[in-house]
Structures
1.
Amino acid sequence: MPNNQFKRGELYSVINGMASTAVARRLQKNFRQAGLEITIEQWSVLYHLWKEDCLSQQELCNRTFRDKPSITRLIDNLEKQKLVRRVASKSDRRINLVCLSDAAKELQELTITLANQTMNEALIGVNKEEIETVKQVFQRVYDNLT
Amino acid sequence: MPNNQFKRGELYSVINGMASTAVARRLQKNFRQAGLEITIEQWSVLYHLWKEDCLSQQELCNRTFRDKPSITRLIDNLEKQKLVRRVASKSDRRINLVCLSDAAKELQELTITLANQTMNEALIGVNKEEIETVKQVFQRVYDNLT
DNA sequence: GGCATATAGTTAGTTATGCAACTAATTTCA
DNA sequence: TGAAATTAGTTGCATAACTAACTATATGCC
């Protein structure tokens, strides 16, 4: 059924379009209005370090779904802002452990509150079952493609 | 309930994370393997022009959810590749109408087929109701934030 | 008519992404 | 043990994104 096919193709712009763009812009705007100078991409790296500090760059690649050059440069910029530092691993000299500074630890509460507020705004009128479905579909899509 | 709050914050990475990245990378890869040199962002512009040719740059901003500088440079690159050309509007000299070349018209069928195939791969095991829910949630999120 | 305002598009600077090619350290295994 | 393959990270190049500031044209209104 070609008509169904066509609609499936259009789904690309659903998954990768207006909503994700709008959420990203709003979260970045909310950070800026709170006086935070970090980008949402930098924040996503910090987010994983708050859960577990001193991860290797490769581990950050895995957890943030970015490639190695992207992480290299995000860490470069976070290091310039004194939010993280690279610490050489003692057991494997190829590895940099990326560790949070005290300044970065202080950002955790505020930024996560802002992210929660942003998502609460975004999800007004969306119920738990629908959210659960979106999460399941996205996990399925990811699994299908990797 | 703070626990629920926290989970909502995590949803940012659902909407803007692994799945959308994976779909974008796969579609770009499928274009490349078919010998197509266009980016998915350029394709998204062409997509709207195939539906309606000779739109203004502002109208392309609205339909692709991009800002004006982004469209300016996408059109610059599409023009370099001879896929579109800027045509001055006769009724309003501020406006550039962006019109498809014959070469661009020939890309329509193949690229849309590739997009459909990519989304079929991505959506294996996802049923129509779930797809409908995702579309509704994303529309709602967009409306909530704009 | 003419000045203020709004709209269309461009340019400059910073950050981020993808890919390919590279260095350095580690592991594998014949 | 030592050469080949793997893994961790970096660098260079191209494209794309956002912000802010800019030019040019059009519109509104006194």
2.
Amino acid sequence: MSRNDSLDLATQLHAAAIRLLRAVRVADDETGLSAPKLSALSVLVFGGPQSLKALARAEQVTAPTMSKLVADLEAAGLAAKRADPADKRGVVIQVTAKGRALMEAGRRRRLALLQERLGRLSKAERDQLAAAAGLMAKLAQP
Amino acid sequence: MSRNDSLDLATQLHAAAIRLLRAVRVADDETGLSAPKLSALSVLVFGGPQSLKALARAEQVTAPTMSKLVADLEAAGLAAKRADPADKRGVVIQVTAKGRALMEAGRRRRLALLQERLGRLSKAERDQLAAAAGLMAKLAQP
DNA sequence: CCTAATAGTTAGTTTGACGAACTAAATAAT
DNA sequence: ATTATTTAGTTCGTCAAACTAACTATTAGG
């Protein structure tokens, strides 16, 4: 029974996470940015200026893929590249003020969407979710 | 703002869901199926036989997109289409035994990945997570 | 009936992913 | 010190998956 519990838990958690992310995805449309670009921008905002390789690893894509995403972000004035003073092969990519503002607005919309739904739950249920968020983070650790 | 307000909860839930999905995503690679096809197959397994339109709506894609996904699943012998007896325009799509077996194998691999991590939690914490999965599904409802 | 709506497919386009091949720079080896 | 190797990033070609527009076939409404 314990084995079945685990199977069910893994399946249910997986399905629930997918549905939850899908539900809030609509808020991202309004930024005018695609999900991969918005996500890369988010890493720049929260992770600070970094190399292309680091950014690619954070987003679990290859260097060429990230190279193109960054080029598009740069063309849109949302990110900027500068030479790495310590390594002339390298670049340091950072978010611009415009990029930061756009990311923040998108994030607020996404969270607003979730908050509206959170209002449907009781206080006890919200507390339960808050505790679970911590547990999920623990599960996701390597 | 309190530490436990709903903005924090929304932020934590969103981040936790993303990290959790990333952590188990590697298990799906071994199915040999892409994420969209695996996801569509999952809807067929859990939602039963249904029309292309229903499947497209469930996956939040357009009919042409789903038409191609189903065609590929059919070519791989994982799903089957039959005419809808009640509407000659319509088709009913259902998972095959092979498709069901593949989904089950994927689910087992995903669990295997999570198992070590689930072991870090107490039984009480696992119960908490299971309950939270239900709440998350509720949140995701439109 | 005939017209409008619906189910699904086909055609063409865009985006984002990859690997392979390239340039340039840094590091290791002899 | 010179050469070889590795590393960082880009460009190119290709593919999957998403969309819209337009098509066929069928059903439903006036």
